[in-house]
Amino acid sequence: MPTLEELQWCCLGTWYPKFRRDSIKTRLIPLPAAFVQLLANGTFVQPFTEPEEDVEWEDEDGDAPHYSPEDASCFAQLERQIDEAIEELGGEVVPKLNWSTPKDAVWMSPSGLKCSTPAEVFLLLKSSDRVGHDLHEALSEAMDNTPCPPTEQTQVEWVLGLRKWSNLVPSSEFRCFVHTQRLIAVCQRDSAQYYPFLLEDSPDLQTALHTFYHEKLHGQVPLGSYVFDAYVSKERKVYLLDFGPFGAPTSPAMFAWEELAAMGVNHSHETCMRVVESQGAIGLSTDMLNRLPLDFYTLSQQCSQEDKDEVSALIGQMRATQAEE
Question: Which pTM value belongs to this model?
Fold first, then answer.
């Protein structure tokens, strides 16, 4: 688990202002405390200014939530800020809370992560367990893993990041591992697909990422060890996508954390570049699990064999569709 220092640095609102010229254009919107509380524990009625019965979301007791005039005004202003940001960024954005993008909620929207209205942004955020983890557990886990945590209560400055929608090619996204200020390993993020051209392009891609690390990140990140995700264009221009702590809960992608730790203590080790080398070597797509509600994966104790077979067939069809993509 990350320490408090790692958690704070990996927050979008911390690192993006420093590296915005090397990242994809993003608008940061500070979130008012009342909205964070609503996102964590409440229910939405939209629009916030003039609620309508046909869009009310009831709470567990069947009662529609009520906002104070102050909160309603605050939420309406937030909607306007999101609208303005979406327009500024070309009409389509990808939302992200401090640490997490709501990838696990893409099944809620026919457009996936692409949002063009505040309602779509709110829907993804409210439906995401990843965002829920940010809100409820991330800080306490980091505090527990920090040897000498501060005695005063640590406050989180919650921020909504809206990144300009870009049709990023999965084969051009890479996860990079830095240990004690050395880039020790790089791999493709989409390990569930085999891209034959990556084998041939690996030396050039590794050089581009190595150069980017040394020219842009080395000595500029206040962590000795961390993970960063990057996108490499056809012109070999590198864009910074995100930071993560070195270790769980960050995914090691095509490596194992024990393997990466061993690379880190071997100071003669050169950067290891790893890509899927054959169709038979592809890994499990964790994103595949995000295309269906969790209920689809917990039916084994709740339904008949016939129902299980139907669900299995449906998942098989979706995997086939993903392969075609």
Answer: 0.80
